[in-house]
Amino acid sequence: MKSYTSKLALLCTAWLLSCAVQAHSLQNKLYDTGEPIPKPRVMTGFIEMQHARGVPEVPFIDEAGQTHSLKQHQGKLTLVNLWATWCVPCLREIPELQKLQQQYIDKNIAIVPISIDEEVKDVRPFLDQHGFSNYRTWLAPDKNIEQIIPANVVPATYVFDAKGNLVGFVRGYLDWTDKEVAPYLDKLIAKYAQ
């Protein structure tokens, strides 16, 4: 009986691991990204992946209930920033990302905030309360973002190339206003938004 239980536990673990890998599409290597761009100190936590990963198209909703997907930003370098109302470091990143959006308004980059809050009704009041009334976000209350990328750390920012392939990420807070971030982003745009 003990052998049967051990085998069953091992089988269940293997199945769960295979589901996790499939859910994140991280095994779907599409192309070698080449030599990584040298990182400034502020970008130490950013990982430029050795291979771009293809991801499935997943629908999100905005605050008005309209459906969106990352596909609408193809042709651009896309930064997907996961955040939540209960995330203290997110409060620091939101105004920084707002400034970055303004700074890059005419460049080949899209910055897409996605709230992973389960209670979507809490998102807009939270943003308004903290002075972010102009901040527009997509919502992923059912965690469908997990089909593309892990959503177990916030804030986290995932970077997609012009074809919607995952090419990099930073999990945790990043000071987006640091003077060395913009030149690095410009290099990422030049490399991946073609």
UniProtKB/TrEMBL annotation:
It holds the Pfam family AhpC-TSA. The keyword NADP does not apply. One of its GO terms (molecular function) is disulfide oxidoreductase activity. PROSITE patterns: PROKAR_LIPOPROTEIN, THIOREDOXIN_1, THIOREDOXIN_2. One of its GO terms (cellular component) is cell envelope. GO terms for biological process: cytochrome complex assembly. Residues 1-23 form the signal peptide. The keyword Magnesium does not apply. InterPro entries: AhpC/TSA, Thioredoxin-like_sf, Thioredoxin_CS, Thioredoxin_domain, Thioredoxin_ResA/DsbE_sf. Keywords: Cytochrome c-type biogenesis, Disulfide bond, Redox-active center, Signal. This is Redoxin. It comes from Shewanella bicestrii.
